[in-house]
Design goal:
Elements lengths: L4 H4 L3 E9 L1 H10 L7 H4 L25 E3 L2 E3 L4 E10 L7 E14 L3 E12 L4 E12 L23 E6 L4 H5 L12 H6 L9 H16 L7 E8 L8 E8 L4 E8 L5 E11 L2
Family: Belongs to the enoyl-CoA hydratase/isomerase family.
Organism: Amycolatopsis rifamycinica
GO molecular function: (3S)-3-hydroxyacyl-CoA dehydrogenase (NAD+) activity; 17-beta-hydroxysteroid dehydrogenase (NAD+) activity; enoyl-CoA hydratase activity
Length: 283
């Protein structure tokens, strides 16, 4: 059986020590499309770190395609899509540092035709101080039906009025090729034949790249360009982006330090890309 929830849930995946430098941060920001008008992200003088750097920091030196082989979980990489990503920041991410990431499988859900595997990663500095906690859900097509729990039904209360802002942000044709240099070498994002075998007309952009682009735009437009004001950032991956498409980002101010956001692809009739996106700020 590809998934055994009794073995998987709560399993410790391992501990990884890693380090990063300002050059890694600069590369990440460039891979998100930051440019010369955003020197706080693209120039080492007065450099700041976007909170979504947390999604790549531990894998910057990983050059093999990811494998999905954990205790109680064996999944074909071609069947996998990112379902949800959440980051909680315990302090601003430093420009350079050393840290330890401890990972576990927090839960496994049976959605019938698919399975959802929830992974939690707690990251501390080399001195033992908490830096961030990340939770990610992967959606594995065709891997459901193993008799597990369907999981909680999450409903986000959404404003009924028009958004407070609508922003249009282009992606680059080479965006996925840049972003894969940050560690995710899944051929789905580069190899046309692999993408077709997985059911896509051409390679798709990493969901975490879209996630990072949206975070960058929100920090710029609503937090005065100060990523230290981000307490948490979460999103559900509702659809794919093809490199070169333009993102339409709709933003509602919730009035309690939260920004509620949806993102769609303009060229495909506003096809949903990110849903239930929430940025919580500290002030």
């Amino acid at each position: 059986m590809p998934i055994d929830p009794e073995v998987a849930i709560g399993a410790e995946i391992g501990e990884v020590s890693f380090a990063w430098t300002s050059s890694d941060v600069l590369l990440y920001h460039l891979a998100l499309g930051a440019g010369p008008d955003e020197l706080r992200y693209t120039y080492e003088q007065d450099l700041v770190v976007l909170p979504t750097f947390a999604t790549v920091a531990a894998n910057l030196r990983v050059f093999d395609p990811p494998a999905l082989s954990f205790p109680g979980v064996e999944i074909d990489l071609a069947k996998v899509l990112h379902g949800k990503q959440e980051i909680r920041l315990h302090k601003p991410i430093p420009v350079e540092g050393k840290a330890v990431a401890r990972s576990r499988i927090a839960d496994v859900y049976d959605k019938g035709k698919a399975a959802v595997v929830v992974q939690e990663v707690a990251v501390t500095s080399s001195a033992g101080d908490p830096l961030w906690t990340a939770r990610s859900s992967i959606f594995a097509r065709g891997e459901g039906g193993f008799g597990g729990s369907r999981g909680p039904s999450e409903t986000l209360s959404w404003p009924s009025g028009a958004p407070d802002a609508v922003l249009e942000v282009p992606t680059l044709p080479q965006q996925a090729l840049l972003y894969r240099l940050c560690g995710d070498r899944n051929p789905l994002h580069a190899d046309p034949a692999f993408a077709r075998a997985a059911g896509f007309e051409r390679p798709i952009l990493h969901g975490l790249c879209t996630y990072g682009i949206v975070a960058r735009v929100l920090v710029n437009e609503f937090l005065d360009g100060d990523p230290a004001r981000v307490a948490s950032f979460a999103a559900k991956f509702a659809g794919v982006v093809f490199p070169g498409e333009t993102l339409r980002i709709r933003v509602w101010r919730a009035g309690d330090g939260r920004l509620l956001v949806t993102t769609s692809a303009i060229e495909r009739d506003d096809a949903p890309v990110l849903a239930d996106t929430v940025l919580v700020s500290t002030s």
